[in-house]
Write a structure and sequence with these properties.
By secondary structure, the chain is an alpha/beta fold. It is built from nine helices and 18 strands.
Amino acid sequence: MFVDKAKVYVKGGDGGDGLVAFRREKYVPEGGPGGGDGGNGGDVIFKVDEGLRTLMDFRYQRHFKAKRGIKGRNKTQHGANAEDLIVRIPPGTVLIDDDTGEMLADLTHHGQQLVVAKGGRGGRGNTRFATANNTAPEIAENGEEGEERYIVMELKVMADVGLVGFPSVGKSTLLSVVSGAKPKIGAYHFTTITPNLGVVDAGDGRSFVMADLPGLIEGAHEGVGLGHEFLRHVERTRIIIHVVDMAGSEDRDPYEDWVKINDELKLYNIDLSDRPQIVAANKMDMPESAENLVSFIERVKEVKPDIEIMPISSLTRQGVQELLYRAADMLDKISQEVVIEEVPVIKEKKVYKLSKDEDNSFTITRDNDAYIVHSVKIERMLKRIQMNSHEAILKLARTMRYMGIDEELRKRGAVEGTIVRIADFEFEFVESSSYY
């Protein structure tokens, strides 16, 4: 089964906690702080592996979490950093942030990689907080939480040659006779609903990858039918073989079919109208095909004089070998890569930094008798500082006084013993100056 779209959850590893510890060696009285820093959490990295061809694995595993950094140790020993989590993906995978819709990267080359979720930094141990005024701090930090997000993965087939055309014009049959691929073949529309890939041996030492893509219908550029599910794959092909049913099955006009398909390609992506194209006039084994071919060539040449039209029959293999030679010749003359202007440069996730004004901003609301303080700076502080020591509580109190939160609480009616809540942390308002 071919899977070309998946949604996964990724989370960088949390940083390891810093440690509160003191030196206790013999003959070293009052040895001072010795708590080490925690290690950094691991990143989640998506890396291209040319051996993969589908997103099938992501149907069964949708969560990817990197490991946490190791906690700091005594004697100022740092905890080890966690290893990065490498997730292997096929070439041609587009990564999109599910929340913002932003395209993060378009990974096409073997070994290309992107950090999709950064690990958190390790917390600082109490050694880091030692000062001339406080030589034995009893305060340390928790590790930062790793980034987390949902990512939509879309695979665009990486093929040299793409077969396009209306449903039931013989694309799957052609692929089956020129390669070892075994696509589903049937006498009804949309027999092919997912791309099929096959390696084609042109017979003269040259080979290339051919993709049988699902059939197009009018309005596909707007998502009608298989729409965008099909068109995204055409962007990757270096040349297009446009298969046309020259027998005019189902009372269709071969020329009108050719015009409509080209219009859909152009409306979806203007660059596709300039992609090298060969028209494979298929089903030439049918009695009415020869007469239709003459009219078809005349009308097409009036619009596009330089386009190549090659009569073939996938069933009898008439003209098929000549078609392969011509496709190989065209591939030899054009670039190995198709440049797509809309694909952005790979970039890391943006890190938002608070300005000084925003850093000290806060709001206060009421919840019955309790006061609720909302402050990004204080909430971040509560996440980092280990609030299990008197010194940590003093640090919080000093920060709140410096920001003006104490004064604002008094203006709003807070008195000794009033409940104040910040995030998940709850405490009583205290007027005592000894706290500072």
